[in-house]
User: Which sequence fits this backbone?
């Protein structure tokens, strides 16, 4: 018994030691630090409206009293720049280097609430460099009552500002001038709040062994521009294999919710400036990323996931009466998952972490960090329904239409209470409803070193018991440390109620605020009403309160707002309370000013404070890019002028190195690139090859430099699956325009036309196996060479027996033909019973279906899957049932295969080793004569005139007239 116990203990310890640490454990969140930074350290520098040089009729618009109907009240520091007409501009002088810009702007709504498009121009050092497209489609939510309206209902128009971000064609350097200027586009009046500039890092390359959503295997799942199914299939393969999924640079449209399932998978894009996900469905439940949703896959199977490095946007523009169900991230990300370096815009919420599907589970130890969570219709992040030990760290959260960061211990479906969540080192700005940080219950939570500024109709920090759940019943301690609140609070929120900068209300208890600094609150700085108990404030500073000069009569008689409104005796202010710059008692009925205690003098006397009458103070800003680390944009091309990058050769090869292609070949494209001057290492030289103006194949990872006049070979990273017929390819070097001073862009392109022959083996191919019979589909055929919408298409397939034994006769060889993976659109063949000999083929043709044996073609890109159906035990002895599917892509309308007369030959690129044999003047291989005849439409015929109709043909480059 002891030996068995020892063995069991050894195995347990071994398994524990070998267990992969969670992704969340890989990041260390610093603790509270009274001497540390407050807010998120982001890589950008902000240039605000008040620091701009204005011209052309531009004006600075301010709101000095925080009126709800003033657009400027929603701007940073309550001011923005109005650009009323053509030529009006705002200009800033750069303090740092940068090549990425974020622009916060305002643009008018339309009468139907759907918004409109416009544009502004960007100038650098007086030279126009680009035009930036803008839209107010997402903007403007109106509040005549507590809930928003999508069109103007006469109430305050919230969400008056939105953002866009863009890469500059040419980087900025210190002392450069960047100008945002109106061209008067569409006759609109524009507004600019600020710009933020930053150094954008290089693209993140594909990790070794990673599955990519653009691998050729997944093209069959791309419908038009919709990559949703391709994402799902690629993630399945990554989860079953390398545990790595890569989303390359580019924009990927997703038509619905991405239901994410996996364990220990690392999902990464090329970076937040390069990989863009766009959910295109504007309707309820139309998009977002859902983790472990049991209604759409294995329940709660989304654990220890690492998700990072891409930008996410949507087409949502309404909360749909609080029923949108359209969060950027929602449901369950359990087991120590980490979501980081994500930039998201325009969702119902940024993150809503709770389990409403299947058996309830919890996102324990989730970490969200280094994210930009912006411009959402409701919460930025809500840890809901039992989420515990979760963290939001070093994030920028702004312009959200409900709480910026929230913890709500909702007990729906029997969820347990929440414990030990953390909000640390975040910057929360421009929240236009509820509050910057909200806690609605739980225990052990920590909120520290956060910077909150410029709330509109919202508090900075608020706690209350308004919502369902255990609330604060089990609360022993919740702590707030080292938080800074700037211009927070309102006397008139969307419900026409009051909210102080720090607002504590109802059955809240056992909460400590330490080292809290409140600056320039337009309303009360602190309010504790309606029964909170054991609330402690330590080391508190209120420097500016009631600056809007407003009065209030919420749940008491009308009075002027002040520094603190206090209804409870069970509240302590200890270790120092400093107050300065509070507006006077305009009503004249407050006997305890600058406090309001309903004139309870004993309660006011218990609050020990120092009122500083002769003091000046500086309002702190949010942290900017760290300037103490010697950082800055390193431009290896600095000082290099008059250079000319040229694309001198273009070649294609199949897997065997052969340039004579046939359909089905996996084709690699190679290019020869040369420069007239040395190009230093570190410069990213990208090449893109586009086939027939549609699919592109790129190389982005060459950074080894160029020697003058010595070509190098750059090969695309992925392969093209050759399709029969004539094709045109266009290769372009520096397609991303990184080398902005290239003196001649015209020689960056090279175009070739070539043919891909139909496969000589028109039955397809297979890999022989041993041990029995194995049926595989090798080819799908159609009864028409050209197909247009409305045509009736009959499918056939070749089925091979790859095994070393015969498939017996007498059983049905059933094959289904499935369109777009839709089981409602199926035709089938079920009348072949002759068996299939070893290494032989059988041809089957659809003879039935749900609506006959033909498919009625519809326009667009489709997949056709032929599936050997082993239904009801047919061919049960087959040795492998997992290889019974074969899929092709079908584009409707489908043109008849056409070939190019006198196609180009591939260039000879030399040896590609930077030696003189890499020929500067690219030669071509001797052309092989094409003896076929072609008509003027490109149709190919035989090698003689026999059987040709009268007309003009091309043969060996010469015009031939057949009479």
Assistant:
């Amino acid at each position: 018994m002891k030996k068995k116990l020892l063995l069991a203990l050894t195995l347990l310890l071994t398994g524990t030691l070998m267990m992969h640490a969670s992704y969340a454990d890989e990041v260390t969140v610093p603790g509270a630090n009274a001497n540390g930074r407050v807010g998120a350290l982001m890589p950008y520098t902000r240039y605000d409206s008040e620091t701009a040089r204005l011209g052309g009729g531009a004006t600075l618009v301010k709101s000095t009293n925080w009126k709800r109907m003033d657009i400027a009240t929603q701007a940073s520091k309550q001011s923005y720049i109005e650009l009323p007409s053509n030529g009006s501009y705002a200009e800033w002088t750069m303090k740092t280097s940068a090549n990425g810009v974020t622009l916060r702007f305002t643009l008018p709504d339309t009468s139907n609430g759907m918004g409109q498009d416009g544009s502004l121009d960007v100038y650098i050092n007086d030279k126009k460099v680009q035009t930036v497209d803008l839209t107010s489609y997402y903007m403007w939510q109106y509040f005549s009552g507590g809930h928003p309206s999508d069109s103007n209902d006469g109430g305050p128009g919230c969400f008056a500002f939105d953002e866009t971000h863009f890469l500059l064609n040419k980087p900025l350097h210190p002392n450069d001038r960047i100008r945002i200027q109106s061209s008067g586009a569409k006759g609109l009046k524009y507004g600019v709040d600020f710009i933020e500039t930053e150094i954008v890092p290089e693209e993140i390359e594909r990790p070794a062994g990673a599955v990519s959503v653009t691998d050729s295997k997944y093209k069959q799942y791309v419908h038009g521009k919709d990559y949703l199914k391709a994402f799902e299939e690629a993630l399945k393969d990554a989860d079953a294999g390398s545990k790595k999924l890569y989303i390359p640079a580019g924009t990927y449209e997703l038509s619905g919710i991405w239901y994410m399932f996996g364990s220990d998978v690392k999902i990464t894009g090329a970076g937040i400036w390069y990989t863009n996900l766009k959910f295109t469905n504007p309707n309820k439940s139309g998009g977002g990323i859902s983790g472990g949703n049991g209604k759409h896959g294995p329940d709660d199977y989304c654990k220890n996931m690492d998700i990072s490095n891409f930008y996410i946007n949507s087409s949502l523009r309404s909360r749909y009466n609080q029923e949108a169900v359209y969060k950027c991230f929602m449901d369950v990300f359990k087991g120590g998952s980490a979501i980081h370096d994500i930039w998201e815009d325009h969702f119902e919420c940024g993150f809503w972490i709770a389990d409403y599907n299947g058996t309830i589970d919890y996102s324990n130890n989730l970490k969200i960090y280094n994210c930009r969570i912006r411009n959402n219709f409701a919460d930025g992040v809500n840890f809901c329904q039992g989420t515990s030990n979760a963290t939001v760290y070093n994030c920028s959260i702004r312009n959200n239409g409900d709480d910026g960061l929230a913890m709500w211990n909702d007990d729906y479906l029997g969820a347990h209470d929440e414990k030990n969540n953390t909000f640390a080192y975040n910057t929360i700005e421009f929240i236009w409803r509820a509050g910057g940080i909200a806690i609605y219950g739980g225990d052990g939570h920590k909120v520290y070193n956060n910077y909150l500024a410029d709330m509109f109709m919202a508090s900075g920090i608020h706690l209350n018991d308004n919502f369902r759940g255990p609330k604060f019943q089990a609360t022993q301690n919740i702590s707030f440390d080292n938080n800074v609140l700037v211009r927070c609070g309102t006397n008139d929120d969307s419900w026409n109620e009051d909210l102080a900068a720090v607002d504590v209300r109802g059955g809240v208890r056992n909460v400590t605020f330490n080292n809290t600094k409140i600056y320039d609150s337009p309303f009360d700085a602190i309010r504790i009403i309606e029964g909170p108990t054991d609330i402690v404030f330590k080391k508190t500073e209120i420097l500016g309160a009631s600056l809007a000069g407003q009065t209030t009569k919420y749940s008491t008689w009308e009075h002027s707002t002040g520094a603190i409104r206090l209804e409870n005796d069970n509240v302590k202010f200890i270790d120092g309370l400093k107050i300065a710059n509070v507006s006077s008692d305009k009503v004249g009925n407050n006997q305890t000013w600058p406090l309001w205690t309903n004139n309870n003098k004993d309660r006011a006397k218990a609050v020990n404070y120092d009122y500083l009458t002769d003091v000046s103070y500086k309002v702190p800003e949010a942290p900017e890019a760290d300037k103490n680390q010697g950082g800055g944009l390193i431009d290896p091309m600095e000082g290099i002028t008059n250079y000319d990058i040229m694309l001198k050769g273009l070649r294609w090869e199949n897997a065997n190195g052969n340039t004579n292609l046939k359909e089905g070949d996996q084709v690699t494209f190679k290019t020869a690139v040369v420069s007239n001057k040395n190009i230093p290492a570190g410069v990213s030289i990208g090449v893109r090859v586009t086939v027939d103006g549609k699919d592109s194949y790129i190389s982005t990872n060459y950074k080894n430099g160029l020697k003058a006049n010595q070509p190098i070979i750059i090969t695309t990273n992925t392969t093209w699956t050759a399709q029969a017929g004539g094709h045109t390819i266009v290769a372009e070097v520096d397609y991303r325009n990184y080398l902005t001073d290239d003196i001649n862009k015209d020689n960056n392109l090279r175009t070739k036309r070539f043919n891909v022959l139909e496969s000589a083996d028109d039955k397809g191919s297979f890999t022989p196996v041993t041990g029995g019979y194995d049926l595989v589909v090798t080819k799908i055929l159609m009864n028409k060479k050209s197909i247009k919408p409305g045509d009736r298409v009959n499918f056939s397939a070749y089925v091979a027996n790859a095994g070393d034994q015969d498939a017996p006769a007498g059983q049905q060889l059933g094959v289904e033909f499935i369109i777009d993976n839709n089981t409602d659109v199926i035709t089938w063949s079920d009348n072949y019973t002759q068996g299939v000999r070893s290494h032989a083929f059988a041809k089957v043709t659809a003879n039935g279906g749900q609506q006959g044996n033909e498919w009625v073609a519809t326009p667009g890109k489709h997949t056709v899957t032929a599936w050997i159906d082993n239904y009801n035990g047919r061919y049960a002895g087959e040795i492998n049932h997992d290889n019974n599917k074969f899929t092709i892509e079908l584009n409707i309308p489908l043109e008849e295969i056409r070939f190019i007369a006198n196609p180009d030959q591939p260039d000879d690129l030399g040896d590609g080793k930077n030696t003189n044999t890499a020929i500067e003047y690219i030669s071509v291989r001797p052309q092989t004569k094409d003896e076929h005849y072609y008509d003027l439409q490109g149709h190919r015929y035989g090698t003689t005139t026999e059987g040709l109709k009268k007309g003009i043909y091309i043969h060996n480059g010469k015009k031939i007239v057949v009479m």
